Amino acid sequence: MNASLHQLRTSKWTVPGMAAALAVIAWLLIWSGMQWAGDAFMLASAAVAGIPIVVKAVRALRARVIAIDLLVAVAAIGAVFIQNYWEAAAVTTLFALGHALELATLAKTRAALGELIDHAPDIAIVERDGTEIETPATQVRVGETVIVKAGATVPVDGEVLAGEAAVNEASITGESIPAAKGPGDPVFAGTLQTGGYLRVRTDAIGGETTLARIIRRVEDAQDAKARTQQFMDRFSKWYTPGIILLALVTGLITGNVELALTLLVIGCPGALVISIPVAIVAGIGRGARRGVLIKGGEHLERAATIDVVALDKTGTLTEGRPQLTDVVPLDSRTSEDELLQLAARVELGSEHPLARPIVEAARERALDLTTANIAYAPVVGHGITAVLDGERVVVGKPELVAEELPGIDLALAKYEVERLGELGRTAMVVADHSGVRGVVAVADTVRADAAEAIAALHRRGVRRVVMLTGDRESVARAVATELGIDEVRAGLLPDDKLEAIRELQASGHRVAMVGDGVNDAPALATADTGVAMGAAGSGLAVETADIALMRDQLRHVADALGLARATVSVMRQNIAIALVTVVLLLAGVFAGGVTMSIGMLVHEISVLVVIVNAMRLLRYRTA
Predict the structure, then answer these.
(1) In degrees to the nearest 10, what's the CA dihedral of 3, 50, 60, 273?
(2) Which spans are transmembrane here (predicted)?
(3) How far apart (Å, rounded) are the C-alpha atoms in residues 395 and 591?
(4) For position 595, what pLDDT does the model report?
(5) Which of 77, 80, 78, 86 is nearest to 26 (CA)?
(6) R_g of the chain, CA atoms, integer Å
(7) Residue 100 to residue 104: CA distance in whole angstroms
(8) What pTM was computed for the model?
């Protein structure tokens, strides 16, 4: 019972509900001929709704702020003095109702944050001294082994040591399809293990988990103001005193106190004040549900102006994992398997990243990669030589082959290297004392969604998509042609990427840089909007990027920019609705026919329209 009374007292609907009930009783009494009793209930209605408004206005004045509440308070008190009790009750009740609607809407638009918090786990099962023990998730120690059974929420960030399971990571990435997890895979606190059994080594707990970082990020972002909102705040500091002065001058000139009081009510910029924050909170909340974290209103507003997107190639446009693409024998005595086996046996002695796909491909074909009696001699930047079974074998650039095995005819090999290079592949010549045996080539495979992602960026209004890469010009051009990228800048060091961003900005463009949040840090920091892709589990990316995409999917860059544009569009629509409402009401007052209560009713309707318009963002459709 006590809990119910407390909930009733603290509910945002209690004051407007009681005030409205008293007003209805007042009208019934007036219609029955009991004018004095009706007036008394009207005064009671105005007092119930008006006292909290007066209290807030006084508190604001003590802080040297002239708030909207002051306009309503003065108008209501003035209406009581001129015995217009109905106007006093109507104005205060409608204002209280509008305030309750604002609170309810902001609570709904912040639902994404509430959902994230609900995902935070409370209990963990920890393996200690061979025994499974239940303990609060915050008391798990880094390095301990946590058991996650089917249907349980993962309580920590960590790495799977053993077991296999499907894990729903929607709370982190926004992806509803469960991800398969096995030994070596990362798991995140707050995700749901939908089937299987996992033993997880703890890497982070409590406030250090990815979920906790996301919650902090969304909290900070929803409180951060956009530049437009900052302008509106400064505007309202002058607007409210201006309305008070206009009402005072009008009353003195016309001698019509009711007209002056009506102007105070009509001038309330309620819809104007809520128009920006409700859109920002809704937009950022919607993004959080979809795994798109936007740092705040200012960054959201800036992202809406982006017309050039710069992307790193490796790991962004491509998978970042080179694979063997071609095995081309150039000797009639050599088969594909023999050529690959020879190249792989030599590449076993190399630590170069391009050696791995050759060796892995040979192992997949179950080729013999015996390393006995092999002496390796890597040549940095050119390839590797080896003495294999007493014979010298070279795998690398044609120049290295010519130097190590002079007199060999390399004409056909050079042709193949150039041909494969034009296709975006890195080719290596394989040769021994008998001549060129063939060419093997590797390439970093393009992401499956990359072409559609680039097309989506163009559809979202991005004029140019620019690739910034440290790779060779031929490789970069081949990838760009395949994906429909507008401009390529190849052979760039990190500082060169930074200068490329500055050059684009100097040309008058608003530039977004897309990278992993670490390797491309200088360019990401310099760009108008830095977008970190695949930020799940990366504390640095979540905390520092202007926009962090929790999923490692390029198409969500277009989604993020589209959401920013939609949010800014709603902000502008809301401002227009609010300003037009005020102008029309002011005109109506001076023309006659708009009373205090009608003005407040129209104001609250405009507030409701602004709220509903902003809530459309909660249903924004992303790819």
Answers:
(1) 90
(2) 12-34, 40-58, 65-82, 88-107, 235-253, 259-285, 575-594, 600-618
(3) 90
(4) 77
(5) 86
(6) 34
(7) 6
(8) 0.67
